[in-house]
Design brief:
Layout (H helix, E strand, L loop, with lengths): L12 E4 L3 H12 L4 E4 L3 H10 L6 E3 L3 H6 L6 E4 L5 H10 L8 E4 L5 H12 L4 E8 L1 H7 L2 E5 L2 H14 L2 E2 L2 E2 L1 E5 L3 H30 L4 H11 L7 H9 L24 H12 L4 H13 L2 H10 L11 H33 L6 H7 L10 H11 L10 H24 L4 H13 L6 H12 L3 E2 L6 E2 L8
The structure holds 6-phosphogluconic acid.
């Protein structure tokens, strides 16, 4: 029997904010047979969604927060799909006095994890649950199955679990949605997800530069390479869309669209939050960091253009046999992906104990296998690594992953040498090999840094052969 609002007294869930993500998530929820109450500050977005909602779905248009509150089953569950930052605080303020003990507010945006902790505490004092929910997959993911990373009180998650697991992407009949830990665990994991996303995108951009400027490959040749790569162990969403991008011709002028796009990469903040956070935790994550730095450097378009006339460098032409180089690049790229994920997972490992999240790393890898931007075939291997060893301190200690990098490190070195010789920047790849070489070095030259610190600042140092802190009057000993 066709369902309409006449049959439905109260809705299963509510949503505030009908931008692209909010609208698509609402449609996804409704199409999974849940009744949903929708509210947006600008009523036209409500009308638009009501006009376009598929038949047989139950949606209730609400034109004020009171109406939304009265349209929901108790305890109420409301998803906020509004921009991160002060808009969330405003809505929380506006809901004050309307929500009741036991109600659940779910922030589905890319909120800063410390804001989520603050909001959770604020609402907990009023008996209201607050879940920080990272949603990945862009507007298409929201519509047809995102990856959903939730943090907060477990009992609140249980109330909405059924809905979230139904609307999430499914991989091998398992939902890509999970409760990941207390407080801001969900938003924290989403921030690291985005930092990995930055890292992978930077590496792909470098492969593009090496093949385009270095080998002189055309857009259609690049399209072929990327779609071929996507048939291998590199298979991933980002590679798939990269191959697609090189197919698209410009509508406004002759040629491919990619060649017309200004080379300034924008960012909304999650990458730089992660940069600061990795530093605060003292977790080395150089590929994630450099990817943010490269976006910042790309923004200096005017200066770069001047500098390109001022400075000379090698001719960016790679002389190695084309197919050999592409195969080295493919292997180097795989090693780079592994090392990038390793850095992100290692940050999660440290954050997990630092913030008491108790993050299930195997489950995180599992829910990243589908729906999200960093979904990749490799994630199944990563999942298995953490299934085998729950307390794996570093992904590179997993036998299978270690072997993957071992087998490809020669190609990674080769690509980097070629990039340097031809003057094509490859900071992402370089950060991967430097990280790898440093991580596998039992000895690093920082004994010298310790000596310098002690020399100029009497900061003291430890010795390898004796316990304790030592200080030397260096000048007196010269
Ligand atoms: C996702 C994306 C999503 C979004 C970022 C892009 O998982 O769906 O990460 O959150 O694309 O906002 O971030 P930048 O604008 O910083 O590149």
């Amino acid at each position: 029997m066709e369902r309409d609002m006449m049959d439905i007294q109260l809705c299963d869930i509510g949503i505030i904010g009908l931008g692209t993500m909010g609208r698509n998530l609402a449609l996804n929820i409704a199409e999974h047979d849940f009744s949903i109450a929708i509210f947006n500050r600008t009523p036209s977005a409500i009308e638009q969604l009501m006009d376009n909602k598929p038949d047989r779905t139950s949606m209730k248009a609400c034109y004020c927060l009171q109406e939304l509150i009265h349209s929901l089953k108790v305890p109420r569950a409301i998803i906020l799909m509004i921009p991160a930052g002060s808009p969330i605080d405003e809505v929380i303020d506006n809901l004050d006095g309307l929500l009741e003990t036991g109600d659940i507010l779910i922030d589905g945006g890319n909120s800063y994890f410390k804001d989520t902790n603050r909001r959770e505490a604020l609402l907990a004092a009023k008996g209201i649950h607050y879940l920080g929910m990272g949603i990945s997959g862009g507007d298409e993911g929201a519509r047809f199955g995102p990856s959903i990373m939730v943090g907060g009180q477990p009992e609140a998650y249980l109330q909405v679990r059924f809905i979230l697991e139904r609307i999430a992407a499914q991989v091998e009949n398992k939902p890509c949605a999970a409760y990941l830990g207390a407080h801001s665990a969900g938003h924290y994991v989403k921030m690291v997800h985005n930092a990995i996303e930055y890292g992978l995108m930077q590496l792909i951009a470098e492969t593009y530069d090496l093949m385009s400027r270095g080998l002189g490959l055309s857009a259609s040749e690049l399209q072929t390479v990327y779609s071929d790569w996507n048939q291998t162990e590199l298979s991933s969403f980002l590679l798939e869309i990269t191959a697609d991008i090189f197919k698209v011709e410009d509508e406004l002028a002759p040629g491919y669209l990619i060649d017309k796009i200004l080379d300034k990469a924008m960012q909304k903040g999650t990458g730089s939050w992660n940069f600061a956070e990795a530093m605060a935790l003292q977790v080395p994550a150089p590929t994630l960091d450099i990817s943010v730095t490269m976006r910042n450097l790309s923004a200096l378009k005017k200066e770069r253009t001047i500098a390109s006339d001022l400075f000379s460098g090698p001719i960016p032409s790679i002389t190695m046999e084309r197919n050999d180089f592409i195969e080295h690049l493919r292997k180097a790229f795989f090693a780079g992906i592994v090392i990038t994920f390793s850095q992100g997972m290692s940050q999660l490992f440290t954050a997990s104990s630092k913030y008491g999240y108790h993050l299930p790393l195997d489950q995180i890898a599992s829910i990243w296998r589908g729906g999200c931007i960093i979904r990749a075939q490799l994630l199944e291997k990563i999942r298995l690594a953490y299934c085998n060893q729950n307390e794996l301190a570093h992904l590179l200690f997993d036998d299978s992953i270690r072997q993957d990098v071992e087998d490809r490190q020669a190609s990674l070195r080769h690509i980097i040498c070629t990039a340097v010789e031809s003057g094509i920047p490859a900071p992402g790849f370089m950060s991967c090999i430097s990280y790898f070489d440093s991580y596998r070095s039992a000895h690093l030259p920082v004994n010298l840094i310790q000596a310098q610190r002690d020399y100029f600042g009497a900061h003291s140092y430890e010795r390898m052969d004796m316990d304790g802190q030592f200080h030397t009057q260096w000048k007196e000993r010269i």
